[in-house]
Design a protein that fits this description.
Elements lengths: L3 H29 L12 E8 L6 E7 L8 E2 L2 E2 L1 E5 L2
Antiparallel strand pairs: 1-2, 1-5, 3-4
Length: about 90
């Protein structure tokens, strides 16, 4: 008759194996699902772009825009400079 501790170790090993199996299958399925279609024009899109005002140094991070490449915002009556798109 196996010791009680052996039964517990086998139970936890089985649970760990089941968790690893479910995680692996979930990761494989997530890689095979296609990307969603882009939103229709006029709807806001998620972007991540940073601008800086050349006159006063104000920095602005833009997170939503109507298109993927929006025109720069204006500050101090001048167009702001693109610092870098944030990845």
């Amino acid at each position: 008759m196996p010791a009680f501790s052996t039964v517990i170790w086998v139970f936890f090993a089985g649970m760990l194996g089941l968790i690893l199996w479910k995680t692996g299958i979930g990761m494989l399925r997530s890689m095979t699902t296609p990307l969603p279609a882009p939103p229709p024009s006029g709807e806001m899109r998620r972007i991540s772009v940073k601008y800086r005002c050349s006159m006063c140094g104000l920095e602005l991070k833009m997170t939503l825009a109507p298109d993927q490449d929006p025109p720069p915002p204006r500050h101090c009556l001048e167009d702001m400079d693109l610092v870098a798109p944030i990845e």
